[in-house]
């Protein structure tokens, strides 16, 4: 990931976490915290083992999906 894109991704996910902390279950919070930690490690350059970018991007998108579903109740709107 490019440096600026990585910084923006971390900031966005952190804002989602801060804004919707109480609406997420423990599993979603743990996943989000793990993704944030791995992204920060990549940003700092201290990540020694190479995490496959595709996997990390997929996890970040999955977390974003969980947050959006939790806060918007899209399922109820679709009925």
Question: How would you explain this protein's 3D organization?
Answer:
The protein is mainly alpha-helical and 79 residues long. It has four helices and no strands. The chain has helices spanning 3-20, 26-44, 53-72, 74-78. The radius of gyration is 14 Å and the shape is elongated. The protein starts with a helix and ends with a helix.
Compact overview of the structure:
The chain is mainly α and 79 residues long.
Global structural class: mainly alpha
What's the total helix number? 4
- In this structure, how is the largest beta sheet organized? none
Percent range for β-strand residues: under 5%
Low-confidence stretches: none
Shape assignment: elongated
Portion of residues within helices: over 70%
First-to-last CA distance? 38 Å
The ordered H/E elements are HHHH
Count the beta strands: 0
Assembly annotation = single chain
C-alpha Rg (nearest Å): 14 Å
Residue-averaged pLDDT: 79
């Amino acid at each position: 990931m490019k440096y600026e894109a990585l910084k923006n991704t971390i900031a966005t996910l952190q804002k989602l976490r801060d804004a919707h902390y109480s609406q997420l279950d423990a599993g979603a919070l743990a996943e989000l915290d793990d993704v944030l930690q791995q992204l920060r490690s990549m940003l700092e350059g201290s990540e020694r083992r190479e995490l496959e970018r595709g996997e990390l991007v997929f996890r970040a998108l999955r977390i974003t999906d969980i947050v959006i579903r939790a806060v918007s109740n899209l399922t109820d709107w679709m009925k």
